[in-house]
């Protein structure tokens, strides 16, 4: 159902579409910047503490290296970075918008009826995008992509380090990134139509990951999470899907350390093929029941898409997208050296 955008804005509680889009873009910029600020602040603080408590003379460079090499300390810093950088900007945003947290953030029931079908369909869709991306990279003779094996991240050796690593890359992102993107941002955009809200929030979620492969994969996962979040009114499924996806990466890294990267890649390839085959069946089953991305069942009217997309790509949004692309380019450049 399409309605006049002015009538719908009044029905949705009024407010300026332009101001809402600027606010969401500003929040995305704050989420991006706060990750660097919080991480640098915590690493610097830990390095200074290491220098002050060291019995011998230690340079700032040696203290910094010691903090980064400490599996437990560094993963605690990563965990705190995720928690603080996601919650503080969102809390300030909700305060400025005079919205109660419960309006956008609900971790209670329900879950979708066929939750396993949705998880398998989401993972299979992500793998399909992954293989298309890898094919394009190979065709253009660009930097090869390793089909899902996380590069540049060392899997911890100690048991304590592995536990903290799990919390820092699986648990914390699953909860707090979903709070920010499927809670606050999606909740702010949904009054302009479900299709726009799902696509726009997923694009922002993809870009904030700061790498070209992750943009496509995170955007795909984000669209499934956003649709189910709008369907159920809960963040339970988005958190579960996010945690499952990150747990797969965690398990893959563990296999790489325990059995060698070659064997881990073989296990990953078999797993992806099995999930992809099951995903096709899951999509067919959900589609036959009329549940697969059926926007009408959400009960949210659509607005003028041309207007809201034009307002969405404002100077703040463009700045955010350019910064994340620059970050991705720097990441690629560093990985090639």
Quick structural summary:
This protein has 337 residues and is mainly alpha-helical. Helix content is 76%, strand content 0%. It has one domain.
Molecular structure report:
This protein has 337 residues and is an all-alpha fold. It has one domain (15-336). The chain is 76% helix and 0% strand. The protein contains 13 helices and no strands. The protein has helices spanning 5-11, 17-53, 60-69, 71-96, 101-104, 115-139, 159-189, 194-207, 212-232, 236-259, 261-288, 305-312, 315-336. Helix 2 crosses helix 3 (60-69), helix 2 (17-53) runs parallel beside helix 13 and helix 6 crosses helix 10. The protein is globular and about 65 Å long. The relative contact order is 0.15.
Feature tags:
337 residues, mainly alpha, 13 helices
Integer-rounded radius of gyration: 21 Å
The percent of residues in helical segments reads over 70%
The run of helices and strands is HHHHHHHHHHHHH
Task: Name the average pLDDT.
Answer: 85
The major β-sheet equals: none
Can you tell me the overall shape? globular
Total strand segments: 0
Work out the count of structural domains: 1
Uncertain regions spanning at least 5 consecutive residues: 1-14, 146-151
**Count of separate DSSP helical elements:** 13
Could you say which structural class the secondary elements and strand pairing correspond to? mainly alpha
Distance between the termini: 53 Å
SS strand fraction: under 5%
What is the fold's blueprint, element by element?
Elements: H1 5-11, H2 17-53, H3 60-69, H4 71-96, H5 101-104, H6 115-139, H7 159-189, H8 194-207, H9 212-232, H10 236-259, H11 261-288, H12 305-312, H13 315-336
């Amino acid at each position: 159902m399409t309605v006049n955008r002015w009538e719908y804005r009044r029905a949705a509680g009024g407010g300026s579409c332009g101001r809402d889009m600027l606010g969401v873009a500003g929040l995305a910029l704050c989420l991006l910047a706060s990750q660097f600020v919080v991480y640098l602040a915590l690493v610097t603080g830990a390095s200074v503490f290491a220098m002050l408590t060291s019995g011998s003379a230690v340079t700032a460079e040696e203290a910094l290296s010691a903090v980064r090499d400490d599996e437990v300390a560094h993963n605690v810093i990563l965990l705190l970075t995720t928690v603080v950088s996601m919650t503080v900007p969102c809390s300030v945003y909700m305060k400025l918008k005079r919205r109660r947290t419960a309006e956008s953030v609900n971790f209670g029931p329900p879950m979708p009826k066929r939750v396993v079908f949705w998880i398998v369909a989401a993972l299979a869709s992500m793998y399909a995008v992954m293989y298309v991306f890898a094919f394009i990279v190979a065709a253009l003779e660009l930097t090869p992509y390793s089909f899902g094996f996380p590069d540049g991240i060392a899997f911890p050796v100690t048991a304590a380090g592995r536990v903290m690593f799990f919390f820092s890359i699986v648990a914390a992102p699953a909860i707090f990134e979903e709070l920010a993107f499927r809670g606050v941002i999606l909740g702010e955009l949904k009054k302009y139509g479900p299709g726009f809200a799902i696509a726009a929030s997923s694009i922002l979620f993809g870009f904030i990951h700061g790498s070209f492969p992750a943009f496509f994969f995170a955007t795909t996962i984000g669209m499934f999470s956003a649709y189910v979040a709008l369907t159920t009114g809960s963040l339970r499924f988005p958190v579960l899907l996010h945690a499952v996806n990150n747990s797969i990466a965690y398990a893959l890294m563990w296999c790489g350390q325990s059995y060698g990267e070659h064997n881990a890649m073989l296990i990953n390839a078999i797993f992806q093929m099995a999930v992809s085959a099951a995903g096709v069946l899951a999509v067919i089953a959900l589609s036959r029941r009329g549940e697969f991305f059926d926007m009408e069942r959400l009960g949210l009217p659509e607005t003028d898409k041309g207007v809201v997309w034009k307002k969405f790509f404002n100077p703040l949004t463009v700045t955010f997208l350019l910064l994340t692309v620059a970050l991705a380019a720097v990441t690629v450049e560093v990985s090639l050296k």
